[in-house]
């Protein structure tokens, strides 16, 4: 299955494992909660989805790469204790607590989350001395003499033998005690993720045209050559930072992430062209509604790859502003919730300034708790920080104005909040206008062509544009999207008819 489907299956399994009955007992007994074993090629996102699952389920996460551990750190160090059996004293070998199990208890103590995921990566690549301990871990949920705490679901990940010479095949007894999920690289699924994570548009457009380069691995006499989703994402982050620093990403830089010389060379050339198209087609001006005639003439004679690059540049600009709208909406929504909370508190006859200070302190503590538990995405962290800064400003206004009356204080804060709401509405309006300008260019340059179909299809794959278009009325989007849906239905029907054998 693809990584998106695997993520949903893991979430469903965790929900099932952690469901309790009326007496607080798990519906599926702990011994029947099979460890989940993810098996898939390196670099396709197995580790990353565990962080997402933990955040979305609101549970803890402790992650280890087991190949970094010795037998002693995994199961604990031996010690001698004295026990009495049948009236005689004996020396007995016991073990200190496993570092891994201890980390789970530490996470519980730090975050207050009693349930979570214990994720062990590269579990089928352990050393010969550690292999028996890993089999015991999967079969009995113990490291040495110590059990994994109840409420903590075991997820393990490994690579198939063809990708790693150190892989050990698990026997039937072990495999019959795990829930095995085989994961495969799927570009269409990764592309949705890429838009959501803000992967560089040059990477997205390049891989859209060369999907066979998304994940490629070859083993030759000269060594192993590979390109992986992890490599593309890490390269994307570097490109974005290099752009801010004014540095160039050349073939050598690309090759340090995409370790497949042919692909690295091809992408480096594409990236150079991408920057040239950005300048030649004056994308910033187009997004302001200025479309010089010379640009239309130029694109009419452009190659298909060049046209796709220009479409990608337009999509990148609208996505950027959609992402800002999304962040601003979350920020304004947070302030609105705090404003409602403030009104409720004032209804309890509390002094205005002190009541607002309490709300600010609760918000700060809420942020710290979620940060400790690693339950916040990057966007959510920014929303909290901006929100707390604004709440601190509101408190300062109340203190300096010495506004103690609850009704006056609330009206003052509501007036300040209205400014934030107004700024959000202006940003939303600006985003809508940029989308209209993008449609202006697409219609004049391409009309209702395959390029317009590509533009609409990409908007439909992008979580930020989908969310924006749920609120913003863009007639041309609905017009072209309706035609796209109709064409897709018609194509499916025709394909089905062609597959039916006609009677003689």
TrEMBL record:
Residues of the ATPase dynein-related AAA domain: 36-176
Annotated Gene3D superfamilies: P-loop containing nucleotide triphosphate hydrolases
Protein's recorded name: Dynein-related subfamily AAA family protein
Pfam family, one: AAA_5
InterPro entries reported for this sequence: ATPase_dyneun-rel_AAA, P-loop_NTPase
One MF term in the entry's GO annotations: ATP binding
UniProt organism field: Faecalimonas umbilicata
Signal peptide segment: none
Ranges annotated as spanning the membrane: none
Domain of life, source organism: Bacteria
